[in-house]
Amino acid sequence: MYDYDLAVIGSGPAGHSAAGKWAILLLAISLFGTVAWAGTQRPVPTVAGVIKDSLDRPLANVALQLQASDGRVVARTRSDRQGYFSFTNVAPGVYAIVAHETNFKPATAIITSGRGETRVEITMESLVPLTMALTTSRLDQARNDLSPETGGSVYRFTAETIGELPEGENTSLRNVLTQAPGVTQDSFENGGFHVRGVDGQIQYRINGVMLPDLNSAVAPIFNPRFAQSISLLDGTLPAEFGFRTAGVLDIHTKSGCINGGGDVTTYGGQRATYQPSFELGGCKNDWDYYLTGQYLQDDLGVEPPTKGPQANHDFTQQGQGFAYLSRLLSPTTRLTLMAGFAVSGFQIPTDSQLTPQFMLQGVSNYPPSDVAESQLEQTYYGTLALQGSLNAKTDYQLAAFSRYFQSNFTPDPVGDLIYSGVASHVLNSSFANGTQGDLTYRLNPAHTLRGGFYFDEEAVETDNTSSVFLVDSAGNQEVPYLPVSIVDNLNHLTFMGGVYAQDEWRLTEKLIVNYGLRWDIVDAFVRENAFEPRIGAVYHLMPDTTLHAGYARYFTPPPLEFISQKDIEKFNGTSNAVPNIGNENVKPEQDDYWDAGIIQQVTPHVKLGIDTYFNLIHHWLDEAQLGNSLVFSPLNYLHGRAWGTELSTSYKGDNLNAWFNFTYAVQQVNSVSSMQFSIDPDELAYIDHHFIPVDQAQLFTIASGASYRWRHWLFTFDSTWNRGLPFGFADLQTLPSYPQVNVGVMCDFDLPHIGNVKAQAAVVNLFDRVYLIRAGNGLDVNAASYGPRRAGYLGITVPLSL
């Protein structure tokens, strides 16, 4: 539009004045005629609106569908940066607008289209914690954040931030998580990682559904490839989270409607590494599907007891797959099927410095390098979930799930007898089935009520056949030097269940309080139940400053591996006899947990977080290794205490992303109250009267990294520094500290007739630092474990043409 100066147009000589008048008249006639013509035209029927989150902030790049009354999708669009969207040329009628966005529940609005413009406003409820400081775009989310729903901390990895690590989507889940504050590295044999110094007790949730206990597996169950986001929640969790509460891995999967298309990746390099994978997704009408699979083989199946760089007898083959399929049954109801598997076979390397402890008739020499043990693990899981909205105030999700796990340890029948006096073939399996339900009711703007239940029944089976030598009362091997066989089998049906209710109360615009109560019961090798009050608060002190604090009572059932007094007595008088007889039943752990912290948005690009916690534990749960196998059994310490501070910083720029996390943590226990037979009598007596550090906790850890994008290139590195794990008598010594630095470079480029191709190169342990993760002579672990040596890898990702 232009502004005309009419005084200038009408001034000057007479000719010019007349011309000016005619120009004004023609302009007026043209404008009037345009308006009159427009008034005779029928308006273009349009449906338009704005989509926001529950904090009234616009959401960008949300996928929206316009569905007719018969369920047909008649149009698709996406919201812009201000959350605005529109559908044009919409015939009059009744329609449903369905919105899909990662980390949000699907939202639906029913509208009636007329001849003109129909306006609508849609609000999406987040599946992950929202804060006032959180930006609207998932690509701009800070790693370190707070959760108004929990009063605790959340550290977030998106598919984009995982892709910016040196190995990109080929990074193992452990190496992703150890970049978070409070997470410490351990060997894969011992779970791979720990959150705030707790052994296991990790809860895995996929799209809001909790999977039965997955902590028994040595090999990874998941790889990050199928995750659109991974949120690590710890601290004081709300009542909806039960059973495994040291850390909650809340995984939200990719979907075909958002991550359509597909690609194939080939990745490999030193240590005989070969790792192909694929992704495939699509969206058609009311169907949404996504598939991914990965195969891995290398010569570093588990961390070896020798420096390497190449370990003897350490080959592994692992396969993982995941499938997601959903269908809209109506504009407000969705049915989702998720299924996956992980099959891992790996050799177990032995220490070349072992010395024979027993004699086997007919065998004069058996080098320790010839000892060949192996283990096969299989996990299969599936979930069927119905998710929907009863009305504008009520949302629900009902899910049924199954999980089968099997671990099969095959000994070296000669070497294990000679070097340790027992060769056990151990087969553990469990089959779990259950249901979960969650309901959200928005009572009013101040109160959001939530409630739900979780129940699962699990059949546990252990088949253990051991070859051992007979010994006299002094422990000397009896003649002839031939083994005897002892069979120790177990079958048991277990049950776990819980219900919860909680209220998210917005007292003011700045203060949110979440309070609730949970009741859990476990009926396994012991039968116990507990009430667990929870309360957490988030206070937005200033626009850039957020405080949080909370208290939680936790009840944690023990893992379902079990060794009874009867099992122990079977080995009396043999080379596998235990030094202690005491073996009370393992009990559930109960915690009183306090957590407080602050998040500060220092600049528009920099976020700083400080979190502190204190935990008093009764019957602290830990796990001890059974012989040479990578099978563990739970034990209790009567008392435990833990406290720590975590500092997290993140920088989010246009081309540069960086993070730095520092953790200080103390975890101490005393008085072994179950599984005493697994501990040396002198150590047992010392622990009864002293607090000692737990062997999976590190006093200090640091994780940092950065990625920089320049044109089609991405340069990235990450690093960790670990103080070292405890070891030795009563875990009173500490291994040397160690750093590890990884670097990577990636490049995107277009190839004719192929499309966008990504090439990458990575170097793990750039400076080839040799370090021990485990010393092998701690309270709970028998084998030493060295970290990976320097290795280089190359990869290429090519799009699939479908």
Explained architecture:
This protein is mainly beta and 802 residues long. The chain has 3 domains: 6-40; 46-124, Immunoglobulin-like (Sandwich); 138-799, TonB-dependent receptor, beta-barrel domain (Maltoporin, Chain A), CATH 2.40.170. It has 7 helices and 42 strands.
Q: Which structural category fits the helices and strands?
A: mainly beta
Name of the CATH first level of the largest domain: Mainly Beta
Helix content: under 10%
CATH architecture annotation name of the largest domain: Beta Barrel
Number of strands: 42
Largest beta-sheet characterization? 22 strands, antiparallel, barrel
Beta content: over 45%
The CATH homologous superfamily of the largest domain: TonB-dependent receptor, beta-barrel domain
**What is the typical, i.e. mean, pLDDT?**
85
**Quaternary assembly:** single chain
Overall morphology: globular
Provide the gyration radius in Å.
Answer: 31 Å
CATH topology (level 3) name of the largest domain: Maltoporin, Chain A
What is the fold's blueprint, element by element?
Layout: H1 6-9, H2 14-40, E1 46-53, E2 63-68, E3 73-78, E4 84-88, E5 93-100, E6 107-113, E7 117-124, E8 144-146, E9 153-158, H3 159-163, H4 173-177, E10 183-185, E11 193-195, E12 202-206, E13 209-210, E14 227-234, E15 247-253, E16 261-269, E17 273-284, E18 287-298, E19 316-330, E20 333-348, E21 373-389, E22 394-410, H5 415-420, E23 422-444, E24 447-468, E25 484-506, E26 511-523, E27 527-542, E28 545-556, H6 565-569, E29 589-601, E30 606-625, E31 632-652, E32 656-672, H7 681-687, E33 692-693, E34 700-710, E35 713-722, E36 726-727, E37 733-734, E38 738-751, E39 755-764, E40 772-774, E41 785-786, E42 791-799
Parallel strand pairs: 1-7, 12-15
Antiparallel strand pairs: 1-4, 2-3, 2-5, 5-6, 8-9, 9-14, 10-11, 12-13, 14-15, 16-17, 16-42, 17-18, 18-19, 19-20, 20-21, 21-22, 22-23, 23-24, 24-25, 25-26, 26-27, 27-28, 28-29, 29-30, 30-31, 31-32, 32-33, 32-34, 34-35, 35-38, 36-37, 38-39, 39-42, 40-41
